[in-house]
Amino acid sequence: MLDTDLYEAKKLYPFQEKTVENVLGELRDNGNKFNLLYQLPTGGGKTVIFSAIAKKFIEEWGQKVLILTHRIELSVQTSRQLQAIDVNNKIINSEVKTLPDQGEYNCFIAMVETLNNRLLDDKDFIKNIGLVIVDEAHYNSFRKIFQYYENANILGVTATPLSSNRALPLKDNYNKLITGESISGLIESGYLSDADTYNYDVNLHGLKIGTNGDFTVSSSDVLYSNFFMQEKLIFAYEEVALGQKTLIFNAGIETSMRVYESFKKLKHNVRHLDSTFSDKDRKDILTWFRTTPDAILTSVGILTTGFDEPTVKTIILNRATRSLTLYHQMIGRGSRRLPNKNRFQIVDLGNNVRRFGLWQDFINWHDAFRFPDRFLESRVSELEDMEFEVEYEFPKGYDKMVNTQILESYSIKDDYYECLDRGDKGKKAVDNSLENHFQSIISHAKNLEHALGLVDLLQDHIEHRLKNYTRCIAKSTDNYLKYLVETYNRQLGQKLRANIED
């Protein structure tokens, strides 16, 4: 049981009360098996809203509610809010293996991986669930849970209704999107702080795009750890945010450590935090950050969600991102309003504002939900794709299954232009690429069946490489790429059959 004396129930604002009624009205009108997605900007109070929805659903429908999160901090925060409004709830963490006491609770909060493990052992691990609420619904890890609750309603909540995996759009799992107040509307109504944005032009040459569509950590570390970028960061801080509580977002740990060292050398009040820190060290640093007016916290990733420190005055984006969701998550950490804080500052050192527009700009989220590819392409252009080299990062453990060194030593883009320089046809680069994949596979294959299995394993890499080829020849239609991949796989399979005894 949680100590609720230290956690006072938050009273709903009028727009939040209206949202609760709108969502419940949709569920009443559409019955079960209806999935609803709700969008509200960071700082708008999604936890307070869906906690109130859970309470009223339990009272009206007489069924239990399951709330899914992806961070333990979010689970605890949600549990406290529910307890404060008299919803008896239980957190299902790694220590909870069975639920003999589930009859005592109306609501359960679980991290997705933990719950998935329990459901694999027992698909009826939690019974009588009528509503599943998914916090940060843009993450695709939640999809694996939906199959167990096909007869329930699912309510996803997110600030940015764009799937974390472009190939798996949210419209595949949700029947309808409801949008809440806009960022500018929440600012005008006095619920969020307004932002002053400062852009510093940065040469991003050298950044590479990974298979997730964003810039790779390794290339970001190389760029942002160099002396000139450190100098630009310090100049920007001292020009805009000197003496103010500042949160710096970096792409990689190496960059964040370099930032810490650079600021410390200049006697600034700075600490570093990343995912390798223990729970105690993290808690100590966040307490220091909360209680120190001129604190500078340089961090990597972990403070984009589940972190709420309203006293932050300046957000520094010491990184570039191609993710609109991440862009909003980072800036949202500074948008909380206080009686003595109605403005905060954004310092952009990654040309992110040029890519996505100002944080306060209106976004047609219904368009994003219905046509995600078109929506994203209008913000991250093909020209930008051409500007950066697209780099493939092999999943962990692939180096034990195939010779990844052989694959990494070959660039189809470089080979294509070398072929042209020699007077050969550019298509020869595809043949050379196929030979490269062949050599990597045959060096590890035990037999033909194993070799063909490795071809399947490398499909993402094959498609990635051929996509780079289509960029070189300026022929990047989906149908041509599909034809190229199918032909490539057929020829690679034939070559393996001709060289490996069955």
Descriptive report:
The protein has 21 helices and 15 strands. The protein has helices at residues 14-30, 46-61, 72-84, 112-121, 143-146, 183-188, 217-224, 227-240, 253-265, 279-291, 324-332, 352-356, 365-370, 372-377, 382-387, 404-408, 412-422, 428-442, 448-457, 459-472, 478-499; strands spanning 35-39, 64-69, 89-92, 107-111, 129-135, 153-158, 176-179, 194-199, 208-209, 246-250, 270-273, 296-300, 314-317, 343-348, 389-390. It has 3 domains: 4-181, Rossmann fold (3-Layer(aba) Sandwich); 191-383, 3-Layer(aba) Sandwich (Rossmann fold), CATH 3.40.50.300; 392-499, no CATH class. Helix content is 44%, strand content 14%. The termini are far apart.
The CATH architecture of the largest domain can be named as 3-Layer(aba) Sandwich
- Cα separation of the termini: 62 Å
CATH superfamily placement of the largest domain: P-loop containing nucleotide triphosphate hydrolases
Number of strands: 15
Q: Order of strands in the sheet with the most strands?
A: 3-4-2-5-6-1-7
Q: How many domains make up the 3D coordinates?
A: 3
Please identify the oligomeric state: single chain
List segments where confidence is low: pLDDT < 50 over at least 5 consecutive residues.
1-6
Helix content: 40-55%
Q: From the alpha-carbon coordinates, what is the Rg to the nearest angstrom?
A: 25 Å
Strand residue content:
5-15%
User: What is the count of helical runs?
Assistant: 21
What general form does the structure show?
globular
Note the main sheet: 7 strands, parallel
Mean pLDDT: 88
Give the C-level CATH assignment of the largest domain.
Alpha Beta
* CATH fold description of the largest domain: Rossmann fold
- Class inferred from helices and paired strands: alpha/beta
